[in-house]
Amino acid sequence: MKIRNYHSLMLSVFTLVGVSASAQLSFTNANSRLPSPAFHSGCPIAVVDWNNDGLDDIIRLDQGRFCNVDVQMPNQQFQRVYLGNVGVGCWGMAVADIDKNGYKDIIAGGSSSNGIGIIKTNNNGTGGNITVLPNSNYFLQNLTFGDFNNDGWIDIMCCDDNAASHIYLNDGAGNYPSQSNIINFNLPNGSDNSGNYGSVWTDFDNDGDLDLYIAKCRQSVSNPSDPRRINVMFVNNGNGTFTENAAAYNINIGWQSWTASFGDIDNDGDLDLMVTNHDHASQIMQNDGTGVYTDITSSTGFTVSDITPIESVMEDFDNDGFVDIFVTGSDARFWHNNGNGTFTRINGLFNNDNMESFAIGDANHDGWIDIMASYANIYTNPTSVDDVLWLNNGSIENIITNALGNNVPVNNFFNVVLEGTQTNKDAIGARAKIYGAWGVQLREVRAGESYGTNNSSTLHFGLGTATAIDSMVINWPSGVSQTIYNPSVNQFLTVKENDCISPEAIVTASGPLVLCTNGQSLTLTAPAGYTYLWNDSSTAQTLTVTQTGEYFVRITEAGNNCSATSATLTVIPSPNETPAITALGETSFCNGGSVQIEGPPGYSSYLWSNGDTTQTATITTDGPVTLTIQGICQTFTSSPLNVTVFTVADPTANDVSMPVAGSATLIATSGSNISWYTTNQGGTPIATGDTLVTPVLSANTTYYMQATQTYGGGIYPVGLNNWFGNSSYSGSTTNATTLFDVTNNCTLKSVKVYTNTAGTRRFELRDASNTLLSYADVMVQPDSQVVTLNFQLTPGNNYTLGTSTATNLLNLGQVSPAFKRNNTGVNYPYTLADALSITNSSNGGQYYYYFYDWQVEKEGYECVSNFVPVNVYITTGLNDFAAGNVAVYPNPVHDRVVIQNNSTDVVNAQLYDATARLVQTVQLNSGENILSVGQLATGVYHLQLNMNGEIHNVRLIKN
Predict the structure, then answer these.
(1) What global pTM score does this model have?
(2) What is the pLDDT of residues 589-616, one digit of tens each?
(3) Which CATH architecture has domain 876-959?
(4) CATH of domain 8-401
(5) In sequence order, what are the residues at sequence separation of 6 or more whose Cβ sits closer than 8 angstroms to the Cβ of residue 282?
(6) What is the rounded distance in angstroms from the CA atom of residue 913 to the CA atom of residue 907?
């Protein structure tokens, strides 16, 4: 996929990194939309519609304690509301409207000494009242809201690190007077049932009620069979009781699990499971439709084993119709769902700061999922690194693609906002399925999941390029089911249980959403027959736009209790569409070769610097290559891509003349690495080197010589040369990798490592999908050691160099390879031109892991010259020619040559140059004949003498 780069200035200024007409995922730092970027969260974050206006808001705890709501305003900026101090060191947070006053409330806590705080938002959203959850002086981990007894009021579930978990039932007025035993967490397993970390309420078995899954971790416990670290599933029996039965569903995982995320990765209408682990690779479990799971990790290409995972989610970030996987902790890992049961890791989406936690939602209401990220230290300690709002660039990319008008399909979306009536107001536990050409997609409303975070309750469906939905079926926890037929795409639809469905708020534009010059305008039009409120406060059905910015309209209908807000349409100025061009092969090659260079798709015209006019150009000559395209408003020319063509000079040699049959010695007088051939078609050389000794020749014979020259090649260093600093080793549970890109074929000959522990390590080379390509088992001794690898590398991105966790555990008794690493003086990338670039570590840009002084052998280019003929002439000696009757002299000659004909016969003479072109013809009578050659160029000539039909050749040198 080729990238088109551009920048867009809107009401909020942000910079867009590369996108393309094929939904290349990218994000932009949008902190300029927030009241103040100087905000430092711990682990808990929430993105949710706090004030029930249809727009997602952001809820965070500055320094892990001061609760603020950043409310999304109609102008797409955020306005901050401070709700209070919930105490020091919060680990978990969840958000829901527990008292049904139209504003969501917040519950947060962590430290066992402070208890868990509940902030009830007042009835006008200007502040809140903080109370403490009864009997909550325990070490809280995750929090989740849900209607566990299905009475229409939202209840609380709290994960306890040091004891069994806790449930509090709502009393019907938004209060939680005491703990409930609706679930018996004190299982008869001989343990204290502690180690409760991540939790999710979900209908995993598709039977219409909420079940509870808890990911468990007990860091002081090493036995995976210990109940304190075996994940549990409390299955809802449908009668108000729950039974723990994870083993029956094959999800009683005994690794040190941290989070569990449920999502339908294969669009078959059931929820699959991704579990993050700290002492084992994270896992993908596939649901068979009844809730029984199979571990399919090994076939998916997915792996998270090189970071400490803290948060996770399954969501469709690029709207291609398949949920992706996002994991953060000691660093961020994004895995794109390929739609065929496999995942591909995408790097470089964010900066090199280690994203520790996040929540997701739609922070600009454009139908593309955004990320609110924190950069705390594990596990929940705020740092000096500001939180970042990462806006998804997908909608801007679609604007560019649509404006080009070349019928390139774009990815669409469909969002649903659910509100309960019999069901709890927030519709927690409600599910929606949409049916279409893709099959079926399933989403579920939740409040609190992963580890201390709360994601948007708006149900988001990416549709890929599909433009129609057959139907949507909503199943409410009350048992009510609703079916909506043929809802339109690219809208936010509001559905209130057994009450109303909002109008379809879909705005159309009179032209591309681009204003190329001042004075241009376009018209936005909402559906007819409703009441309108645009985000600029105008109230007509149409809006004339003369300035760039973001526009949406809220539509209401008389007698309809459901209103809807259209998706944001962003009007942009002339975008920077400077094309990125990519070589589809080596850009250095021998004379006679070529390379194809490709530009981005979807443009109406292409003009390459060599005159080609298609998306792809074939380049055969040396020098810079550029592409000029016609953009939406103007033409853009790419940065040059340099092509190098290697040319080998033709070698030279003197022809050889012999008076009699025999062996000739041919000698190259210029050229290197000479090969000799019998034809100008090549094949197997008959000799190599500067000299060819022929077999005995009795007739004129031509041989062909060719020179060979090698360009490039050699062994070069790259990366940090040696370890330095005060901090040597990472923890025993860290087995990091080094990421690098390869631009040309090359060989990683060796690296240098430092250790204080003897033992065999397995050095592994893996590709972007984590497939093992090469490995080397090497016994490493203490101090520094150069390790020979000889790994063959081919062009590609996101290779990793690391060590085998299994081998480390076997030989060292720990996950880590016990190699030194740097955490200071690191400055990625480390690049060796025309070979590779070391781009990052698996734990972020401040670390340089394990492998120093890379020795890389570049691949040389072996090029050849043209074939050059070298002639051997057999010239019968003149003493034998007609009994010595003809003599030729002098030879070499300058002005004239004398041909003495001592016979009475006439001799016909013809003079040819080295190209066999006839130069002179003379008739030699008896006696002395003069042949003038002064006018001829210096060189070798051939004099052919014919006497009575007998032909003889004389090699004549003109000087």
Answers:
(1) 0.77
(2) 999 999 999 999 889 899 999 999 999 9
(3) Sandwich (2.60)
(4) 2.130.10.10
(5) 274, 275, 276, 297, 302, 303, 304, 305, 309, 312, 327
(6) 20
